[in-house]
Design brief:
Elements: E1 2-10, E2 15-20, E3 31-32, E4 35-37, H1 44-56, E5 59-65, E6 69-72, E7 77-89, E8 99-104, H2 119-128
Parallel strand pairs: 1-7
Antiparallel strand pairs: 1-4, 2-3, 2-8, 5-7, 6-7
Length: 130
């Protein structure tokens, strides 16, 4: 079981940042909330701050957490730990992803081609916004 974090980064305009995995990554070109694997001795929160800085050049503030998701892909299993965040500083630079965009926080988020483990997180996040 791989322990992974993800950041649901929101802004004041009511949008959320989504990223698209590169063609070279596992689950190529699927959309996801950015994050990454927890390293030995690291808390989930520390992991998220580090991964977002490494992958997106952003400093974030964690606001709250959502329910972790356990998902079994054919080649591996993950426990995905989501956090709702906002940007404190930095300019977005994609270092690993194919693309990113700010999307309205509404049901149209579900229209994206998400990595399967992210789908329950999208649904829970949307349910907390109503």
């Amino acid at each position: 079981m791989i322990e992974v974090t993800c950041a649901i980064i929101t802004n004041e305009e009511g949008h959320v940042l989504v990223t698209q995995r590169s063609a070279d990554m596992k689950l190529p070109l699927k959309f996801e909330f950015p994050g990454g694997k927890i390293e030995t001795g690291e808390s989930a929160e520390q992991c998220l701050l580090r991964e977002v800085k490494e992958e997106l050049n952003l400093e974030i503030e964690i606001v709250s957490s959502l329910s972790p998701v356990i998902y079994h892909y054919s080649e591996f299993s993950i426990r995905l730990i989501p956090f709702v965040c906002y940007i404190k500083s930095g300019n977005l630079i994609l270092r690993e992803h194919a693309s990113s965009s700010w999307r309205s926080i509404d049901q149209s988020l579900l229209d994206l081609d998400w990595a399967a483990a992210d789908i329950p997180i999208v649904r829970e996040f949307l349910s907390t916004r109503n």
